[in-house]
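[09:14] KT: can someone run the structure on this one? pasting the chain below
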Amino acid sequence: QVQLVESGGGLVQAGGSLRLSCAASGGIFRVNAMGWYRQAPGKQRELVASTTSGGSTNYADSVKGRFTISRDIAKNTVYLQMNSLKPEDTAVYYCNAVVVTPLPLGYWGQGTQVTVSS
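[09:31] RB: done, structure tokens below
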């Protein structure tokens, strides 16, 4: 059974940095795209950043230049380095992955809270 386990959230002051990690495990043939989404209270879940198995990346305009997504294909792990954090980055961050088992299906992590104080 596929699981996505996230870590690295927490409380940080504005201007600070955090690094999120998400590891996929369990009956995996291959992991295709991986990404990070976030959901703030009262708002819809939104894409923060994503990366394909070929290395292409995509970022929300609000995080370009501050966040960097990367992955370790051998470890089925994706990272999100978040720098110059702002209070508006406060949200629950969710990892998403398209996992081939052998059918390609989308999976979500349990979410990790990121709180940025002003």
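[09:33] KT: thanks! The longest strand covers residues 30-39.
[09:34] RB: yep, looked fine to me
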